[in-house]
Amino acid sequence: MRHFKSNKKRLGKMSIGLLGLSRAVGTTHLAFALANYLRNGLGLKVALISFNNENDYEGLKDYANTYTSNKLFDLRDKSYKELRRFQGINFNGIHYYACNNNAYLGEIVNSYDCAILDISVNDKNYREALKFYFSCEKRFLLGSLSPYKLREVTERIRRIKLRDEEEDLTMLTRDYNKKRKAKLAKEFGVNVQIIPEIFDMEIIDGKNLIWLDGLIYS
């Protein structure tokens, strides 16, 4: 517990952006694992904000409502005319929101010790997704070194570098290929890290705990 207490003091308020460069690269799974570590490991007040078009929010709401400990809640007073924008889900102590508008993102983020943005990017929402990503203090890309997804991932990295060539890019991936990793590093200066196997995003222990801790404080 000494380890957790010291980290809580160091963390303070923080926003962490996880930007999925392709579908099914583990962005949401990692976001929940990280949120669980911060909330139930470090005892911080945590928001997980979903920015994607894959209806994850509605799916989680249906799942959460089957448990008495998880329920809808409101960040703002019920008289507020845009209440629905601030309605979230209390899932195992983590407050989860669906958010597709930068206008009220800051208010949600400022209400928590740490906010994690789960950002799924596609060609239709690319500009807005990058606004969310670059608004975060800590930023990580989620991608794949698989030959089936590498072209899409590479093109989106290229567009990020065009926007900010000085950006230090870290890409987290569940698969590994030495040659493709070296190519991304050489062409874009991307630091590729392998995500450990996190089978249950509600249970964090052992190497997973050490890896998540290092990810936050790297």
Defining key terms:
single chain, 22% strand, globular, nine-stranded mixed sheet
Query: Given the structure, what is the number of helices?
Result: 8
Count the E strands: 9
Give the strand order of the largest sheet, numbering strands 1, 2, ... along the chain: 3-4-5-2-6-1-7-8-9
In terms of structural class, how would the helical and strand content be classed? alpha/beta
Question: What is the 3D form?
Answer: globular
The pLDDT mean sits at: 77
> What is the share of helical residues?
25-40%
Strand content of the residues, in percent?
15-25%
Radius of gyration: 17 Å
Distance between the termini: 20 Å
What composes the largest sheet? Answer: 9 strands, mixed
The SSE order reads HEHEHEEEHEHEHEHEH
Low-confidence stretches: 1-12, 78-83
Provide structural commentary.
The protein has 218 residues and is of the alpha/beta class. 39% of the residues lie in helices and 22% in strands. The chain is built from 8 helices and 9 strands. It has helices at residues 2-11, 27-41, 56-64, 105-109, 126-134, 150-163, 178-188, 206-217; strands at residues 14-20, 46-51, 71-74, 87-91, 94-98, 114-120, 138-143, 170-173, 191-194. Strands 3-4-5-2-6-1-7-8-9 form a 9-stranded mixed sheet, sandwiched between helices. β4 (87-91) and β5 (94-98) form a beta hairpin. The longest helix has 15 residues, at 27-41. 33% of the residues are buried. Residues 1-12 and 78-83 have low confidence and may be disordered.
